[in-house]
């Protein structure tokens, strides 16, 4: 997996692993950088005409201000209007074959006029200025919904998306986890960088394998009892003091509880499938705590930097001796 330059585990791994071809654009727009390879208008037209043949239309970064004149694309399966200046979703009614619609990084205020896109399986309206989740009632084929970095304050109006597999709501203004009960097919839920104070209302999500709630205001690990299929749990940058409440999450392979207020590694000796344990920036001071990880025979990576343990001059050596399967300590691979 990837490391950021600060040697920290990535803040939200979805951006790193999923949709890898998009990483560059995502990072650029997050950093506010200007793309030096910005296409001219003629490039945009040329590439779109080329792609029509393959039912795959790409109008990225073309300074488009209004969606219009796309009626000819009735057969298009994917349409990307990434990084333009679009303010309103409109004039898409005839594109009823569309499977993927990408409106990432525009200036859209409302989810509207999507009712005819009943075949849509993937919708990305990240990096816009949406305040509400709405207007998705007809999109019952939707499998992936990306609404990262908007101004959304409530999780609602998702009930009919019963085959939704991925929901990205990171970097919004959400305070409460709610109204997810009918999303029984959901596999990945991303709620990082919001204002959530409690892990709750997750009981219906039996198929959830990835849960990310980094950079919120969680103080206690609970409400995860029903998530027996969970494999990756990201809880870094919260206010958690005790590791607990993971009794039923026996399939966890990644546990990220970095940057919390934890003094002791405890209650995880049953997590025998653990491969990644990210525990940096806490208050761990007792070397015997590593015994909790002894049963995790496939453990590959541990992050423990910036705990009191790191003051020990034998820091790396002691971790290697305690956890012989580990191949990476903090950002550095073990050299033999
Ligand atoms: C919207 O979809 C309906 C039903 O598929 C279709 O009859 C109608 O023509 C579509 N609207 C437009 C503007 O194409
Ligand atoms: C949950 O996952 C299992 C195994 O992948 C699958 O068979 C089942 O249909 C899923 N349940 C729902 C409600 O999607
Ligand atoms: C967690 O571990 C501590 C010992 O470190 C133990 O006292 C406590 O009962 C454990 N909690 C649970 C829920 O197992
Ligand atoms: C470290 O933890 C072990 C086992 O929990 C305990 O017996 C020991 O007293 C602790 N050492 C310190 C210095 O707290």
UniProtKB/TrEMBL annotation:
Top-rank taxon: Eukaryota
GO cellular component terms attached to this protein's record: nucleus
Localization per record: Nucleus
Record's keyword terms, sorted: Leucine-rich repeat, Nucleus, Repeat
Basic and acidic residues biased stretches: 11-27
Residues annotated as domain U2A'/phosphoprotein 32 family A C-terminal: 312-330
UniProt xrefs under InterPro entries: Cilia_flagella_integrity, Leu-rich_rpt, Leu-rich_rpt_4, Leu-rich_rpt_typical-subtyp, LRR_dom_sf, U2A'_phosphoprotein32A_C
Region (Disordered) residue spans: 1-38
Family, per entry: Belongs to the SDS22 family.
Name by which UniProt lists this protein: Protein phosphatase 1 regulatory subunit 7
Originating species: Salarias fasciatus (Jewelled blenny)
